[in-house]
């Protein structure tokens, strides 16, 4: 009888251990972090760092695999994937998130920020947190932070000094309205083309120009098929790090905090790398034989765009615009 009781106790212990193991397995998650950038770029390098840190800080409860260079789809696709549960974490432009919640796109509008310090102040502001909450209320997805992407400049085969130089220019832009705002304002022809196809489009003359930060121009080798980099600085751009609501809601509070911390630290690391590299890249491009045009009349471009930054055609209020400008 004692033997049977002992066996019964052992059986119950085995069941208990099994239940704990099953619960642990159910709570563990292999995350997918998707983005459209090259493996050579700081965004990817820091995403990989975040994946390693997540596994270490959760004692292996969670792992995260990073899928770069549009391997899980174009930017529109990975944004949609958040709601479908096919991706767990993404980098995305403010302009793409604005498809779901318009006001958050304000950070991707041309000449919205005075400089990088103004952008940093916005990133750390109550205004940004309120817009992130508005996005979450609309989508259930969790905005974690912003990563500096760089100032966007126009590359072309003609020198661009002032807005009139862009009249009729067929320029590739991402497929989001705010990227098209500046080209539209100066009479150019913005042409959306998938990021992975831009090099070939420039090489074949499908478009005459494109716009991106210096780091991206180097990583995607656009300087090989464009003669000029015109320092328009028309958008002080950044990437949102967003976690799928499905994923976020499945995590314990402890693991939500760990994931938030590693993603915020990765954003800070990538931001610093981008700022430092921007300072060095002008000389690097000149060494490659590309003409870097530093004489762009940015104030003329700013004036051309200014009337488009408020009013019925944008999805943020005058109050939101004024709060951002007052930061």
TrEMBL record:
Coiled-coil residue windows: none
UniProtKB keywords: Signal, Transport
Compartments in which it is found: Cell envelope
Pfam families: DctP
UniProt signal peptide: 1-28
Translocase in keyword set: no
PANTHER family: PTHR33376, SIALIC ACID-BINDING PERIPLASMIC PROTEIN SIAP
Similarity remark: Belongs to the bacterial solute-binding protein 7 family.
Protein name, entry field: Sialic acid TRAP transporter substrate-binding protein SiaP
Organism: Fodinicurvata halophila
